[in-house]
Design goal:
heterodimer, A: 7-stranded mixed beta sheet, 4-stranded antiparallel beta sheet, globular, B: 113 residues, mainly beta, 5-stranded antiparallel beta sheet, 11 strands, 0% helix
């Protein structure tokens, strides 16, 4: 299957700082990538859809000014958590379908964010 | 919008026995149904998927069945092994359009040696 990577795998930051998480498709191009958040023992909740060359679309209830998404190229999307607070602590996971409108999505390994 | 319900939330089976996890979906327009396995601290791994033009798909010890009329689909794992222990998620989406996956709540599967 296709490979999606994330960096960093875990990060600890102080309240009020910003954190950037990278999502890369390693062996395919992805015009679309998805960002999810997962709290302990819960399911994955879609935060936003990242579109290469255009603005991201956010799910209802997700603050676009707090979770900045940039899809800089066909293989890279970034999620920046701005002015992070302890309640933003979570497991952030990205996914990407191979290009051409394929429906199969491959997930990255996730990034554990802890805000102190 | 789409809503996916998954049952049971926890499942414990003896090694070698079969495990079945069931999901129902609400939107009849959904036509793609993947299953993911997630181990602790890792991202979900696609284990099998099915599209609405077929009723059953099998890959070694894993099979998925789909009943479009009833809007439910199931994951079947036979001859379970300890390494099958993980959290399993079903999901539903439409092939065309935004391709957003809507996930079920997850099932924690424990295989007892």
């Amino acid at each position: 299957g296709a490979v999606v990577s994330q960096h960093p795998s875990w990060v600890i930051c102080k309240s009020g700082t910003s954190v950037k998480i990278e999502c890369r498709s390693l062996d395919f191009q992805a015009t679309t990538m998805f960002w999810y958040r997962q709290f302990p023992k819960q399911s994955l909740m879609l935060m936003a859809t990242s579109n290469e060359g255009s603005k991201a679309t956010y799910e209802q209830g997700v603050e676009k000014d707090k979770f900045l998404i940039n899809h800089a190229s066909l293989t890279l999307s970034t999620l920046t958590v701005t002015s992070a607070h302890p309640e933003d602590s979570s497991f952030y996971i990205c996914s990407a379908p191979p290009g051409g409108g394929a429906d199969t999505q491959y997930f990255g390994p996730g990034t554990r964010l802890t805000v102190l | 919008g789409e809503n996916v319900e998954q049952h049971p939330s926890t499942l414990s089976v003896q090694e070698g026995d079969s495990a079945v996890i069931k999901c129902t979906y609400s939107d009849s327009a959904s036509n793609y149904f993947p299953w993911y396995k997630q181990e602790l601290g890792k991202g979900p791994q696609l284990i099998i998927d099915i599209r609405s033009n077929v009723g059953e798909k099998k890959d070694q010890r894993i099979a998925v069945t789909l009943n479009k009329t009833a809007k439910h689909f199931s994951l079947h794992i036979t001859e379970t092994q300890p390494e099958d222990s993980a959290v399993y998620f079903c999901a539903a989406s439409m092939v065309q359009g935004a391709q957003k996956l809507v996930f079920g709540q997850g099932t924690r599967l424990t295989i007892n040696p």
